[in-house]
Specification:
With 84 residues, the chain is mainly alpha-helical. It is 52% helix and 0% strand. The chain has helices at residues 2-13, 18-25, 29-37, 59-69, 80-83. The chain is elongated and about 65 Å long.
Length: 84
């Protein structure tokens, strides 16, 4: 995040060229252009939900085990290895 602000300042405030700033900070010119476009990094957003084809048939059973484990003492709960 620190480099983001420094790159934006070098180009927008100091008036240096994108190519010069890219060379100095070790990022591509396209990255410098993207940094100019957004005031804060846009971040990553997943397009679709994660699919778990091998796990999906068992999700109901796993949820039931975890729900039942909430009612028992900590020492008697299932571990991740045991559920696997």
């Amino acid at each position: 995040m620190e480099i983001y602000g420094r790159v934006r300042r070098a180009v927008l405030v100091d008036g240096r060229s994108q190519r010069e700033v890219a060379r100095e900070f070790g990022v591509s010119r396209k990255t410098v252009q993207k940094m100019q476009r957004y005031a804060v990094p846009p971040g990553y957003q997943r397009q679709q939900a994660v699919r778990r084809p091998k796990l999906e048939p068992w999700l109901g059973a796993i949820d039931a085990i975890l729900e039942a484990d909430k009612k028992v003492p900590a020492k008697q709960r299932h571990t991740a290895k045991r559920i696997f």
